[in-house]
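Researcher: I'm preparing a figure for a lab meeting and need a structural model of a single chain. I don't have an experimental structure, so a prediction will have to do for now. The sequence is pasted below. Please return the structure as tokens so I can convert it later.
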Amino acid sequence: MPKRALIVSLPILVLIAVLPLRRVAGRDQRGPVHQAAEIEALVNKAADLIEGEGRTAFTAFRRKNSPWRYGDVYLFVVDMHGTVLFNAAHPNREGRDLLQEHDAAGKQFHKDFIGTVRESGSGWVDYMFPRPRRSTPEVKWSYVCATTVEDVPALVGAGVYVE
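Model: Understood. Here is the structure written out token by token.
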């Protein structure tokens, strides 16, 4: 299994700039740099687990109040054609082709997820999406990383909501 490096990237610096006094994902004890690094580490670790265990890893990812799912942080997995393979907080999205889905601002964020992974292997994407158990979209930044789910090229991601 490949090990993914944790690198402070330009999107993390952007998060620092836009979130200086805001809370992210209900974790107000930590600063934006730590929160962004935490999300990147979570996603990279999940990608390694998926490559080793395949869909079996999804069972652990779905558990609430676990290292994989806590507060408003949860994992999602999308194949490189836009079909949602897994979404811990929104299981009704699983099996659906959401490549053409638009957020509240008109952004096709699944296309951006896929484009980011194809271009760089990983990176940050901003878009509007409702928190779990809510219907109003909010600004969200998600880190996505390339992975393979049982020989299917895919991406895994998780994000933080900007309050």
